[in-house]
Amino acid sequence: MTTFTPTEMMTIAAARALDSRDVCFVGIGAPSAACNVARLSHAPDITLIYESGTIGTAPEVLPLSIGDGELCETAVSTVSVPEMFRYWLQGGRVSVGFLGAAQIDKFGNINTTVIGDYHNPKVRLPGGGGAPEIATSCGQIYITLKQATRAMVEKIDFFTSFGHGEGGDHRQRLGITTMGPTLLITDLAIWKPDPKTKEFTVVSLHKGVTRQMVQETCGWTVRFADDLGETPQPSDLELTTLRDLNERTRIAHAGGKAA
Questions:
Q1: Alpha carbon distance 189, 10 (integer Å)
Q2: Are 241 and 40 in contact (CB under 8 A)?
Q3: How far does CA 45 lie from the centroid of its chain?
Q4: What does pTM read for this prediction?
Q5: How far apart are CA 191 and CA 143, in angstroms?
Q6: Of 212, 205, 253, which is closest to residue 60 (Cα–Cα)?
Q7: 3-class DSSP state of 228
Q8: Extended strands (E) in 103-148
Q9: Is-catalytic flag, 51?
Q10: Residue 173 CB: number of other CB atoms within 10 A?
Q11: What CA dihedral angle connects 195, 199, 234 and 188, to 10 degrees?
């Protein structure tokens, strides 16, 4: 049986959530890997959009940033950033936003700004970029991150991107009409928000993962679905697609030439 890492399981499980009908606003890092694995396997007609204004991009290697030339060179079209946000994103033309997080709470609120006090932080993070607008304007939001108590916290240090706020109908009360976070994929499990409270609940454990492992790496009391399932293992095709993409990326970023 083919072995795989928790990170590979997370990336492939995230990729499976996408299909060819999606118009997806892609975050750099783990979200980018998942979206491109989907494009290179079961969702060849997916439209990937990056914050720099590239539409329908099909990179051979994963970009280092939204300004990576690989994105523009392989895009169907490149528009200005104001047009990307005003016409495409805020115009309701993006079905899925795929984001990462430094900190997240049980309602899917994201912090990518600072750890600790804002004026005297322990760590200053890259910031929000376009994520706040993505979080409120895309049809729904998928989130990926590796589980750790420092990342999954009871209360985030800074609200960078709004998820479900205080839970329940908080988004609706603020006049936000999009669905918000509907899926959280970690290296241990798949989570979905409770239909009423909007608290993220574990619906599927990856192979070999226990409830205790999930709780030990989460800063709040975890809820598990009554019909808790097991995430299907990666297929050989999925693993080959991901590993080939990562190897091309490694070679390219090391100054070599991708095969």
A1: 8
A2: yes
A3: 19
A4: 0.94
A5: 10
A6: 253
A7: strand
A8: 103-104, 110-111, 114-116, 121-124, 140-145
A9: yes
A10: 10
A11: -160
Sequence-separated (6 or more) residues with CB below 8 Å from residue 135: 97, 99, 110, 141, 161, 162, 163, 180, 181
Angle between helices 6-16 and 30-40 (to 10 degrees): 60
Using DSSP's 3-state secondary structure scheme, residue 123 falls into strand
- For the chain, residues with pLDDT lower than 70 are 1, 256-259
Q: How far apart are CA 133 and CA 51, in angstroms?
A: 11
Q: What angle do CA 181, 93, 108 make, to 5 degrees?
A: 10
Structural domains for the chain:
6-253 (3.40.1080.10)
Residue among 72, 80, 69 at smallest CA distance from 48: 72
Q: Which residue in 147, 233, 133 sits closest to 187, CA to CA?
A: 147
Token digits of residue 171? 């988004």
pLDDT in tens, 80-104: 999 999 999 999 999 999 999 999 9
Indicate the SS3 state at residue 119.
coil
Question: Of 73, 84, 90, which is closest to residue 49 (Cα–Cα)?
Answer: 84
Residues 100/31, Cβ–Cβ less than 8 Å: yes
CA distance 120 to 114: 9
- The strand order across the sheet containing 96-99 reads 77-78, 54-55, 47-49, 23-26, 96-99, 140-145, 181-186, 189-193, 200-205, 223-230
Query: 51 with 129: CB under 8 angstroms?
Result: yes
* 8, 51, 133, 238: the active-site residue: 51
User: Which pLDDT score, from 0 to 100, does residue 110 have?
Assistant: 98
